[in-house]
Amino acid sequence: MTTALADPRTAADPTAAWIALITRYYDGCSAGDVDLMLVTLHPDVVHWFLAPNSGSAPVEGAEHLARYWRKVTGMLQARWVVDTICATPDQAVIEWTMWSLPEGATERVATRGAEWFTGQDGRIREIRSYYQMRPHTTELDGFPYPERGYSVPGAEHSSVHPDAGQYGAGGTA
Description:
Elements: H1 14-31, H2 34-38, E1 41-49, E2 59-60, H3 62-76, E3 79-87, E4 91-100, E5 109-120, E6 123-130
Parallel strand pairs: 1-6
Antiparallel strand pairs: 1-2, 3-4, 4-5, 5-6
């Protein structure tokens, strides 16, 4: 049974509520678990993507978005990790890493990105995603990822999302 999530707009600690909501969403994405994603998504959710990524058209509706991520997870052996968050009761912005094994790759690669979330009725209502998908690792040159508690090769979890490695078929936890 899945534990109920607090609504970030009314929670005593909105940041903690957003972390619980977003990490559960990403755990569902990583596991390809449609039902786990659906408990986090507003029925009218819209996910916007940065162009010119392939598949950059918006994805609308909870069921459609959950099935979309199940397909992506299966194709890429993807695992998402929330690395950091900044939140108010109405919205949250995160930095994340998607670990994957793109077609033809022999090693897992990190795609670093950021997303802006809004909520409604205690669920994710809108996601605006900022990243560029490449067949190799994309990240800030020289940024001290390990020192800041971000996920790194061989450790697909972070200080914000320590249980990320439990979900999906990705690499080492």
